[in-house]
Amino acid sequence: MKNISFARIVILWFCSMAGWAQKATLTVDFSKEIGSMQPAWAWFGYDEPNYTYMKDGKKLLSEIAALSPVPVYVRAHNLLTTGDGTPALKWGSTNAYTEDAQGNPIYDWTIVDKIFDTYIERGMKPLAQIGFMPEALSSKPEPYRHHFVPGQSYTTIFTGWTYPPKDYKKWAELVYQWVKHSVARYGQKEVESWYWELWNEPDSPYWGGTVQEYCKLYDYSADAVRRALPTAKIGGPHVTGPAGRRGGNFLKTFLKHCTQDTNYVTGKIGAPLDFVAFHAKGAPKLVNGHVQMNMGTQLRDISTGFEIVASFPQLKNTPIIIGESDPEGCAACGMKTDPQNAYRNGTMYSSYTAASFARKYALADLHQVNFKGAVSWSFEFEDQPWFYGFRDLATNGVDKPVLNVFRMFGMMSGKRVDVKGNFMYPALTVRDSSVRRSTPDIGGLATKDEGTAAVMLWNYHDDDVAGTAATVDLTLKNIPAQKVNITQYRIDNEHSNSYEVWKKMGSPTNPTAEQITELEKAGQLARYGESKRQTVKDGQLIFSTTLPRQGVGLVTLEW
Prior knowledge:
The active site is at 201 (proton donor). The chain has helices spanning 2-21, 55-67, 110-121, 168-186, 188-192, 211-228, 245-260, 295-310, 347-367, 401-409, 427-433, 498-504, 513-522; strands spanning 23-36, 43-46, 73-76, 97-99, 105-107, 125-130, 195-198, 234-239, 275-281, 285-287, 290-292, 319-326, 370-374, 394-395, 398-399, 415-421, 441-449, 452-460, 470-477, 483-491, 526-527, 532-535, 541-547, 552-558. The chain has 559 residues and is α/β, with parallel strands linked by helices. Helix 2 links the parallel strand 2 and strand 3 (73-76).
């Protein structure tokens, strides 16, 4: 009898837990400000700079610029790489620097200008990457051009463009001429608003030299930038994950050089450093036939990077830019060759992005650092198969669900305010062990501005498996108005999701014009229900909404 009673208790407990697990509560207190809603999300980047001025590249850049209330910063590789400008995966070129038969420099800014003109025309700002090494300057130029194919080893791409210059003064003159030309073309005030940076991931095979050779190159580059424009902003070093020994040690060595060591050019102590940059990536894998994300890996890189910068008192207020901040490393590795990347077309990429950005802000608060931006290394790949599974924001001119998260961020401004939830994982829990419990992370990020407020909410889990939709009881406290207009937006399988529409079409390899129009419409951010005007009682509103697994919602209030 006792066993039967115990079994019944266990069954009832599991049943109650199953029901409780889907009943989430989120409480937003608009009177408790926790920090500024710095538009750290309004930063994007990609390997292939020549896609910038192509048809779908221009279209996507226009959409990115339109979704943000502030200028968007764009970072691209290969801005000084030698070549004819023909685009390819993980490759790009501008031919900005060549030499004549006598070794005299020849500068040609035609392609670089074409890239930057595309940004400036849209009100965007370059995070101008000084790299990579022109063939004529490389200390080991052959072989130079690589041909990357998805699925092949990364090691094949690290060729002559990765090496230090054979002449540091010629390199410095190239940098000087580029900045000087930029000022002449765009004006001093415009170029003062840019960020100049040196190289990419110099702690990896992207740099064929030593850490000290990088520091030397940085000194020559920074000196050249400042000679051309004394008010220009210069920084680095864009190392890989600081939580790893290699990236962390490189970052520490570089920061020590900039603050304490002798400058290779001036002979004085230190080097200009207007911002510090490092990269942070997650680590998805296949588990029992499904994708399992690892947000914790990315957040540990961010937390360690913040901690390293904060350990230098001179850099306490120096802006930090996470130069690549993504669920994993290779944007040009599609899901067919890398099945762990199958999260990219659907809503898991969206919910991961929402949940991870909230924790980036929380970690910046924890370490008390100046978190300026986090570059989402995702753009578009011209003339590639539909929904191939690249880490991109759009496919063949059609927006993917993840782009709509950034449209949501574009409606959030002012101050971040306190959010608490019974299923919202603490930021340090996500950092240390990711989202691996039996229950999902049902959380929120909320802001308050003059006459407006917004609450982003998500139903995220690392495991990309089907889950029951959650009922979320949302309590909004201390609303400074008596009546508000409430609008909801949604990203899930039925809303803001071109991928699901494409699959329902039969996954056409060559959609018709009518189908493309339908897909473009499905790629836009969709409202969830009708806008409503509601009365606020005692500064408070309470209502419920349903949020599917891996879904993202946004609630906006206007008064």
